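name: query_chain
kind: protein
chains: 1
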Amino acid sequence: MKKPRPRRTGAAPAARQPASRATPGQVRIIGGRWRGSRLPVLDIDGLRPTSDRARETLFNWLAPVLPGARVLDLFAGSGALGLEALSRGAVSAVLVERDASQARTLLEASLRLPGGEAASVVQADAVAWLAGQPRHGFDIAFVDPPFGAGLWDPVLAALDPVVAGDGWLYVEAPADGHVAVPAGWRLHREGRTREVRHALYRRAGGSPGGAADTLPDDPAGLDGRPTEAADQ
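structure:
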């Protein structure tokens, strides 16, 4: 007769170890020719992809000025902002990412997309890289640094001359923080969630009567309330 197995006593089984740094998550492109494409995201400190809802709102704001635009995605991370812009009609995008592993992952992801060679992936420190760029090389710039690094002031100062005279600037920052953009930029739209403020700025001297003045209102902001439009 087979003896019953004794019950285990003592300590409970060890808890499952957290996912390693190299374990990817995913975000998706939500509009345009690459809609539904998945982008891998490594588990890296400070990497916080922009949410689907925030991106949908942002690209609704930018829809009239995206076709043919030259885009810069600093702190690119997953590449969700730069690649979303290409998906929706931008002609080129430079994606700057400091972490070498994520930069490689981003490059591989972009090359899997039809026409993804329009994205240039640069593995570099954002502030150092900006110092070597020509004036007015980009029409739209996305700035979403790790919140704990406090990089907004040096990055925005270095970025200012790199964006075109009728350009656009998108900034993410903590909802309870304050980011001072350089002189000459004016708030065009903003939205907030519990943790993040999403703000789109335009050059104060943008050409009147052009597409820069016809960006659509988004009737529901990121938190479900109407967005503010500082220049209306």
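note: The radius of gyration is 21 Å.
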